[in-house]
Amino acid sequence: MRLPLAAAAAALVLAAPARAADWQGFDWGMSEAEVGAAKSDIVVTRLETARQRKTYSSYAPLAGTWTNDGHEYRLLFYFDADGRLRDIDIELGELECSQMNDVLADRFGKFEEEVKPLGSSQRVFRRWRLAKKAELLTTSLHMPSSDQWICGAKIKKPVGR
Prior knowledge:
By secondary structure, the protein is an alpha+beta fold.
């Protein structure tokens, strides 16, 4: 009689929703306190002044440093108006903007790419699927006439998930 009861209890535990972190110990929807306490190799610190993003009414009160294949990146953890983790911006650190996509492709492999002309410039969007619930997005704009680059990267929850 104890065996069926134990099996039922085990089934309930297995069926309970688990909040498994999806990228480096972080998951979308975490609070600031949860991000700060997450089990991760990334040490999270509080910014003196939170960064504000006008789009999506989000703010970044927390930062961290991520080391990947010998390159160091600064992370900014953006939260929505409800105080839940929305996305993570990646600042390149010592990497040149023109190197960003190649370095990330070497590390993460296959990606989806969309190239669009923008006047005399070229804009490149890339997407890597990092895990079930995380994707890395990069945008780079190259102005060949001046050899100037502008780029950005973020990790976020895939659209539709």
